[in-house]
Fold these 2 entries.
Entry 1:
Amino acid sequence: MGKIKVGIIGVGNCFSGLAQGIEYYKRNPKREVTGIMHERIGGYSIHDIEFVCGFDVAENKVGKPLAEAIYASPNEVRWVDSVSNCPGNVLESPVLDGIGIYMQNRIVPVKSTKTGEQLKKEAVAEIKRSGARILLNYLPVGSQKATEFWADVALEAGCAFVNNMPVFIASDKGWARKFAERKLPVVGDDIKSQLGSTIVHRVMAKLCVDRGVEIDKTYQINVGGNTDFITMLERDRLESKKISKTEAVQSQLKKRLPDDRIYVGPSDFIPFLGNTKLAFIRLEGKMFADVPYNLEMRLEVDDKANSGGTTIEAIRCCQLALDRGLGGEINSASAYLMKHPPVQYGDSEARDAINAFIEGKRKD
Ligand SMILES: NC(=O)c1ccc[n+]([C@@H]2O[C@H](COP(=O)([O-])OP(=O)(O)OC[C@H]3O[C@@H](n4cnc5c(N)ncnc54)[C@H](O)[C@@H]3O)[C@@H](O)[C@H]2O)c1
């Protein structure tokens, strides 16, 4: 088996956690890897993944080896002190709409003299040189233009695309068609955490539906203390994130709730929480004889540990699709692993679908 060579867009906290988590298991080979479905997918283990190039805008990351940049401020993940799975370097990306107003005093972009076209040419050349076959998008919420720039780069460089953030690429018909035409797989959009607020909220909502219990209103309030939550203070950047998170829940209900009876969203930034994320979830409605009920849940998780395992599955499914010569949106992997896939399934149906894909029983 060859290595799975991945290029990273946005060398932030999520990527730092992904690289450090894989290293953690390398150093602790007897530990069972939690957060992945299969030890091997298409023959690939988590240790077959290599991060061969990265792209960012921050002056303390660009020009550095990836293995060093993952520890640069404002990244906060410190699970291991070094990684051996990041042989690549970080190159410059255009800023476009990547840095929100509340992040401007925390990220200093490189003073660039290059045009977008020059940066695109350099990126395509670096991707080809490094042998990356998959680009993994970890740009901040609201980076519509920057994500489209990198989806274009993927098409030009002949790379598959895993879109872990909520700009719609896999779930946008136009973009999905472009990837299908180039026979390049795309998995997206917006990674679902292993045990995150989305999956917990969806499963409890589905439980109510399956038990014939009516849901009248529901909310999911999320707070955290990392840069992702700072960026999400800017309401204008949140539109697709709110759609992604809200639809993930609405899709599980028997009847859609009107907009004023469902609130799902990133809600505030609490600095001392760091990468800890708190979610407060409430469902309320009626049972037999219209007697009311309510259900309250509180979830406390490390936001970065939470998305690493599912991302490893998305990368391996994408490589499997490449190996099989498949292009376009991979519906099964997207439905199981992402909040806003091209097609929403229930979670157990999605699990059956991704297993069928892995076993070669379905093509998407
Ligand atoms: N569990 C989770 O953490 C989770 C779940 C779902 C989605 N996501 C999404 O993943 C994305 C990444 O999250 P994170 O915590 O790593 O964010 P982060 O803020 O730690 O990292 C973002 C990185 O992108 C860089 N960047 C900004 N503009 C750029 C540009 N134009 N080109 C290249 N790089 C640029 C920043 O310098 C930074 O290094 C976010 O959109 C987040 O919402 C995370």
Entry 2:
Amino acid sequence: MNILPQQFHKLVLHWFDRHGRKHLPWQQNKTAYRVWVSEIMLQQTQVNTVVPYFERFIQQFPDLSTLANAHEDEILHAWAGLGYYSRARNLHKTAKIVMNDFNGIFPSDLRKLQTLPGIGQSTAGAILSIAFNQPAAILDGNVKRVLARFHGMTQPINEKATENQLWALAEKYTSTQRAADYTQAMMDLGATCCIRGTPHCDICPLVRYCVAHAQGMSAILPVKKASRELPVRSATFLLIQHKEKLLLTKRPSTGIWGGLWSFPEISGLPEIKMIRAHCRQHLRITVSEYKMLDSFRHTFSHYHLDIFPVLMPIQHMPPIVMDDSLQIWYNPYHPESIIGLPKPIQLIMKKL
Ligand code: SF4
């Protein structure tokens, strides 16, 4: 297998001209702002899931300054359901930095882009190539898969040394002329042709030169170092209800659901007398009635969380015991304001 970089990107671009996706919302009215938002949303998330979120997000925050001036809760609310909420918080931080330090103009420089929160090398490459047509390489999951198969790489792609080799290949093949189309083409090739599992080699523009295909290994490559099984944790969510309102607390800005609103919680599933004692001590609330609701599992990237919601109606609303920017009484039926709620919290509220 011998292929020159210009042959490689010629084949890929020719395929893109005929079969690539050209009607995605972020491909229209292309600006650095829209490309950046789409790239952040597309991290760890499939195109079909991202499209409606992107359209709503852009409608609500049409430009950098609207996003920079928005309240974090509005942004987290718009993000609810996409997961990995640090992405939303980083979007907000980056919007503010670009407004304050770059006069509201998105930097078009790889090094500067990578200093912004949430923008790593691949995302910076995608922004530079798609928005500015600069020949910057990307190496997202799709591109890794295509290149690892194309070169028949049998070493785990989640090892640093392999990743360095893949970066070198990605840079070698990047088109200098049609950088934006090439980046989009490689993403599309990985998403529609060189897919996970068994790829569609019969319709792949690279099939003549592909090592994995020639060696009958396309369905088993790339390999990854086995990841350990996810641990299971559990938490009891305290749904303290006064009339239609529920007590919510704001989560710390780091960690899971950072900065979003959630129910007070206790780790594990303690006995009811422990739950009552916790409410008395930490929330100054005396609980008499209670009802265990259906438990369910929510999976994060690094662990499973078994959630046990317990509904505890109370007759008298106690005073807020924390700073009221950290604790609120929230009416899920008639919300008074937009707040960021994680998807599992929304699901519990819908079932009440
Ligand atoms: S020939 Fe098959 S395995 Fe090789 S790059 Fe194309 S789709 Fe992937």
